[in-house]
Design goal:
Layout (H helix, E strand, L loop, with lengths): L1 H7 L14 H4 L8 H6 L2 H23 L8 H13 L3 H32 L1 H14 L8 H8 L3 H25 L3 H9 L4 H12 L1 H26 L8 H10 L3 H29 L9
Helix pairs in contact: 5-14, 6-7, 6-9, 6-12, 6-13, 7-9, 8-9, 9-12, 10-11, 12-13, 12-14, 13-14
């Protein structure tokens, strides 16, 4: 019996000493970042640095060409931009363009909301939206310019019409795709709460599909902005005042290349501000705050 107990007794493990590893070789995770490291981590600082590099490359290339008519220097363009804003008509042209853009963009978003709401409510609405999107989304908005001139004449209504076309289908397509990607669990939860129709769309579908909706709004904004500038290059005068596109066209006819670049720079600056300020703020307070996007 004693031999049997001895046989099933587990062996005694050998004692050993674990040597401590110096954490200094691994890295101090609690080390405070230096001032330079904190600055570099800022997205705005990195983007400004990229813009400075591009401006320096622009200045160097223009000096190498040495032809102000073909390619003015960055300093000349900034000087022309300042003069056009302070003493010239550029500020009024910017106000005119943004006013028309806001009208067309808001109308396009409203129509897209109507179409997508109908599409998620009825099967016929889904077929209608799919058919219209397939027909009109590939059609360039600028191609409707002749029809806009015939229907609405030379003025703001024609510009608003082509902007609505450029916004409507991009926003509707992305919104509808986002609605279709909402999980069945969220859909059933809304239905169990008795949500139907518009309340179901507002309380369940829109929050769940907001990343796709925001992407559609960004794409619609980009389409609307470039469509407006292109349309103003063709018929930008309305009520005695044109927009930024007409400002570019006028200065091109007068061979004021620095002013042409100043107009183009204004278009770029407005695009950067809208993307970096408006859409970034919306994104920070919605999809990033909700944990739907990194």
């Amino acid at each position: 019996m004693a031999d049997r107990r001895t046989a099933i007794t587990p062996p005694v493990r050998r004692e050993f000493e674990q040597r401590e590893i110096d954490a200094g070789h691994v890295g101090d995770v609690a080390r405070r970042l230096s001032t330079w490291e904190r600055i570099v981590k800022l997205t705005a600082v990195r983007r400004v640095f990229i813009l400075i590099l591009l401006a320096a490359a622009w200045q160097g290339y223009a000096i190498g060409i040495n032809n102000d008519l073909i390619f003015p220097t960055f300093v000349q363009v900034i000087s022309a931009l300042w003069e056009a804003l302070v003493d010239g008509p550029l500020l009024g042209r910017v106000r005119s363009s943004l006013t028309v853009l806001a009208m067309g963009y808001a109308a396009g978003i409203g129509l897209a909301a109507v179409f997508t709401t109908i599409a998620v409510s009825t099967r016929i609405g889904t077929d209608l939206l799919s058919t219209l999107t397939s027909m009109f989304n590939p059609l360039p908005a600028i191609a409707l310019l002749p029809l806009a001139l015939l229907w609405f004449g030379l003025g703001v209504p024609s510009l608003v019409f082509v902007i609505i076309h450029s916004v409507l289908w991009a926003v509707a397509l992305n919104t509808h795709s986002g609605f279709l990607s909402v999980s069945e669990t969220q859909r059933m939860a809304g239905q169990n709460y008795g949500l139907r129709g518009l309340s179901y769309v507002i309380r369940i579908l829109i929050p769940a599909a907001f990343p796709s909706i925001l992407t559609g709004l960004k794409i619609g904004w980009a389409f609307a902005w470039r469509t407006l500038i292109a349309a103003e290059l063709v018929f930008g005068v309305s009520s005695g005042e044109g927009g930024i596109g007409w400002f570019i066209f006028e200065n091109r006819n007068q061979l004021l290349t620095a002013n042409v670049f100043a107009g183009l720079t204004t278009v770029i600056i407005i695009g950067l501000l809208v993307e970096s300020v408006i859409f970034r703020t919306i994104e920070t307070h919605t999809v990033r705050k909700w944990g739907m996007q990194r």
